[in-house]
Amino acid sequence: MDNQLETGFKAGRLVSIDDLDTADIDTLYRTTREFIKILNRPLKKVPALKEITVANLFFEDSTRTRLSFELAEKRLSADVVNFSSQGSSLKKGETLLDTVNNLLRMKIDVIVVRHKISGTAQFIHNKTGIPVVNAGDGTNEHPTQALLDLFTLWDAGMENKDIKICMNGDILHSRVAGSSLKLWQKLGIEYEINGPNTVMRRHLPFRSANFNSSRPFTVNYQLRIQKERQNKELIPSLEEYNGFFGLNADQNPGVAFILHPGPINRGVELDSDWADSPQSLILKQVETGVALRMAIIYFLAQKKGG
Amino acid sequence: MENPANHLIINDKEIEKILFRLSAQMYELYKFNPDLKILAIQPRGFLLANALLELLCEKFNLDLPLGTIDPSFHRDDFSRTDRLIIPKESSVPFLIENQPVLLIDDVIYTGRTTRAAMEALFEIGRPKWIKLLVLINRYLEREIPISVDFEGFRLDSEPGQKVKVINNEKQNIEVRISHG
């Protein structure tokens, strides 16, 4: 099945920010607000997906993203099965597609996938036509993280303000950067990306087209150092990285808010003084993540594209 | 020129009278139940509920808050409709636990939306009782046993017809019917 020309929830996938148009993002954020209300009630569930089964396929280690998706699915009353490559038949030589096809025979309706190879989520969707959510593919994209980061900022009161984001860190290996830059460009958000030259994406402009150097930054986005994705030493030392690109206790970035996708390497990307400061939205990002993922799965599970 | 597939069945003058009667009935209900909570079923009950609350304020000097309840997450046609279900805002600015609740919708047809709205309501609290007010009661096509407590107009419509309660160009409510 080839749905590549379709966008929006009717495309039946969220593998890239490219899959959503601005109207979808607006709908997604409105619905996320409704789910936040539900998550703050004593009864935190709705029966919307009681006839749906979701498989979380995590071929890479993950704690918060996997738990966030699983909670989102359970809050929607979906049946959930979790798969991790540890101890699976992949170790016995089974291909990814064989694994997925076996799962489909068990009547799975939606797949959430994380994999170290870029393009895996798209591959599964193309081969099966099943609704797929990309929970991170290699160094390509992590669209739910980018969407929840921006929602967190808007929810913190920045929705109708001209935000200006400074993203610091390992841009090259960051799939969060891959999705965030697409999202910010789509919505005309002003940004600049910074990092060691060895881990920048050279084909991308470092600043948005509407960058205005006379305006101060309102948001600092500190990316995690991707130690597991660097196959050679690209950063001389973490101390030096911290000195140039980290947020230190003795610096004041002068921004309203600080974001980080987690997990934090304290003392590398940012010191505890900033991680635990009133400007830090890091735990709020985690909290919003469940509601936003509920909204995404709610729309994709409707399977209107098939 | 009027679209023949989109007939006006109740004009704004007639609706004005019906709304006045319904608002008077709401006032009577309120007099015996001063804790009464008003909730509009999203999306289309909101227009009617707003008009009724304005009348209550204007004619009876009674200013009641309005809440909204969205039935989307409780619908029974999640995988059966071709249309993408997009939820609307649920906003309940008062406690409903052990309170009398009046649900308002523009049209009741199969009754499934009302059921879904009540399910959504039960997840917020346990009302003392729930009564239902609708402008148009398509009473011949009920698919589940739900009855109406206050109705504006009882309509002998047929399955497949679409009944719309809309604001006309003068921003007055009128009712139109179309086939298919």
Overall shape of chain A: globular
**Rounded mean pLDDT score of chain A:** 90
Radius of gyration of chain A, Cα only, in angstroms? Answer: 19 Å
Structural class of chain A: alpha/beta
Largest interface (CB < 8 Å) = A-B, 24 and 19 residues
Give unreliable regions of chain A as ranges: 1-5
- Assembly context of the chains: heterodimer
State the main characteristics.
heterodimer; A: about 300 residues; alpha/beta; Rossmann fold; 2 domains; 5-stranded parallel beta sheet; 4-stranded parallel beta sheet; about 15% strand; globular; disordered N terminus; B: about 180 residues; 3-stranded antiparallel beta sheet
Describe this structure in words.
The complex is a heterodimer of chains A (306) and B (180). Chain A is of the alpha/beta class and 306 residues long. Chain A is 36% helix and 14% strand. Chain A has two domains: 9-142 and 289-300, Rossmann fold (3-Layer(aba) Sandwich), CATH 3.40.50; 143-286, Rossmann fold, CATH 3.40.50. Chain A contains nine helices and nine strands. Residues 1-5 of chain A have low confidence and may be disordered. With 180 residues, chain B is of the alpha/beta class. Chain B has a single domain, classed as Rossmann fold (3-Layer(aba) Sandwich). Chain B contains three helices and eight strands. Chain B has a five-stranded parallel sheet with strand order 3-2-4-5-6. A three-stranded antiparallel sheet of chain B has the order 1-8-7. In chain B, α2 links the parallel β2 and β3 (66-69). In chain B, α1 crosses α2. The model of chain B has no long low-confidence stretch (mean pLDDT 94).
